[in-house]
């Protein structure tokens, strides 16, 4: 039994008190019923089903228990490992998605003329759907696209790029687009963090003759660690679980499987190929990955506050 | 000497930030400029017209899709607000045996990636015939948004003094009355934050709409736009016009409620 939240008024006599408690608990149960029902039906039951079906061959209508077969198949499938590798490349790009906003937030924090306007503009892509971002990104990276136009304008026409159709480069195009999109969000997180720092520390550093770079590395970054961690986790989760639409629009996971990540692979195996059981197994893998990331962040935050 | 150096520094920073504005605003300028060109004008790179907007409205049912998006987003956000404020009040101020375990389980719902539940969800809803029905998508959106919303509301209500609830009880108010007359008005700022976050998220979503609302008469604008891209239509200016139509409502919400959006983002941090 868990202790009820809140405290009981001490002025009440014991008998009324127990009635009061019972009423309160009944109200508590009734008030939380809608949200429990909603989450149970459309979130909890489906995730349990995903776990169960990951041990079956399932086509959406009939499912047969096959034990660990889906997982064994995945472990031996080169495609799956290519997909995992794509996720790792995505992960490896996260430091850039943190570092650039960190530097820009540092610059914004100097409060030069118009910094509020700059902040608003940088944050704007947060409100735009991945579909729209993807649609523009295709025109940007296309063979006859904007990027090549810009290169030509600057007399660099000999560098002709066609990132989206190259197996080795398509993921880079997706990553660049991704970094562009999360830039504003992370910048805002860091600015919020910097606003909580003590300005006197900066003054002291300046008096001691510390340069901007030294201040950033030795003072700002260590003091912002909590915010950096938060931004890091948020960006990883976004990269692993929110890029489906961007990939769908930009590359459809291709060329080959060059831009297929775990989350895209689930959709691909389920709704394009029809192997629902196998897709469920990938769903379990993705859930496990996300779960580990969340737990890691929780433990790190805990260890810091203790 | 030092002062001039500082001024040079600040000018440099200003210029860097301006360059970034160009990079960040460029796609929006591209969308707007391109949409006001016909396909031929786009290829030639000169001239302006409204042709592509006509093409867009003749190719997909833009108005119907906007109505669908508004309907689905509005209903889902309303459902999220009702369930999360009620739940938040219960978890923060009322409680019952096992309520903190239930709360933890709801928080765990924040960790579940959409793709990890989408297959059974789709099969379940198609078995009971809820595909291509507004309420199917609305319930899925609501369930996906509810855990974070409930977390934010519970955190908020924990900050409300318990004495307020107790005093009202002494005066003979029912829990329902306490909820509607005291808790809801107090939590208006948190409610706006949750609403803004969810409106943008659901309006911009593609995957749920793509799977659960497939026919053109119930399709949302984001999905309509994506199908335009994957159909054989290569009319880029019309696609850009569609992008503007789909993005504009979210941009307007962003411009009005920017502060709330920032707060919602950083409120997620105080875990």
Task: Summarize the structure in words.
The complex is a heterodimer of chains A (306) and B (271). Chain A has 306 residues and is mainly alpha-helical. Chain A has a domain of 167 residues: MetI-like (MetI-like fold, Orthogonal Bundle). Helices cover 72% and strands 2% of the residues of chain A. Chain A has 13 helices and two strands. In chain A, strands 1-2 form a two-stranded antiparallel sheet. Chain B is mostly helical. Chain B has a single domain, classed as Orthogonal Bundle (MetI-like fold). Helix content of chain B is 80%, strand content 0%. In chain B, helix 3 packs across helix 13, helix 5 crosses helix 7 and helix 7 runs antiparallel to helix 10. Chain B is globular, with a radius of gyration of 24 Å. Chain B starts with a helix and ends with a helix. The chains are: A mainly alpha (306), B mainly alpha (271). Chains A and B meet through helix 1, helix 3, helix 4, helix 5 and helix 7 of A and helix 1, helix 4, helix 5, helix 6 and helix 7 of B.
In a nutshell, what does this entry contain?
The complex is a heterodimer of chains A (306) and B (271). Chain A has 306 residues and is mainly α. Chain A is 72% helix and 2% strand.
Helix-strand layout with pairing:
The complex is a heterodimer of chains A (306) and B (271).
Chain A: H1 14-53, E1 56-58, E2 63-65, H2 69-76, H3 78-108, H4 115-123, H5 130-141, H6 146-153, H7 170-195, H8 199-207, H9 212-223, H10 225-241, H11 244-250, H12 262-273, H13 276-305
Antiparallel strand pairs in A: 1-2
Helix pairs in contact in A: 1-13, 3-7, 3-10, 4-7, 5-7, 5-11, 7-10, 10-13, 12-13
Chain B: H1 2-35, H2 39-44, H3 51-59, H4 62-94, H5 99-108, H6 114-127, H7 134-158, H8 162-170, H9 175-186, H10 188-204, H11 207-212, H12 221-230, H13 236-267
Helix pairs in contact in B: 1-13, 3-13, 4-7, 4-10, 5-7, 7-10, 10-13, 12-13
